[in-house]
Amino acid sequence: MGVIIFLFSYLGNWLDGKYPNSYHVFVKILTLIGVAIAFYNLNRQLKDINKLL
Asked: CA 4, CA 1: separation in Å to the nearest integer?
């Protein structure tokens, strides 16, 4: 979960450095996307664990 969020925020930070803007839009958007993907992945894994019980 942390790795996904870190990679998306790192990519956003890199894009903000490459295409500068005053609001750091890329890091904010990509971090939120990373959080959403991480929670989706966590939810999917928890559903699989609950099927086993």
From this structure: 5
Cα gap 15→26, rounded to integer Å: 6
C-alpha separations of 31 from 5, 9, 14, 18, 51 in Å: 6, 5, 12, 17, 30
- Return the structure tokens found at 6: 């870190």
CA distance 39 to 42: 5
Tell me the whole-structure pTM to 2 decimals.
0.89
Q: How many CB atoms lie within 10 A of CB 33?
A: 16
Instruction: Read off the pLDDT of residues 13-31 as tens digits, 9 standing for 90 and up.
Output: 999 999 999 999 999 999 9
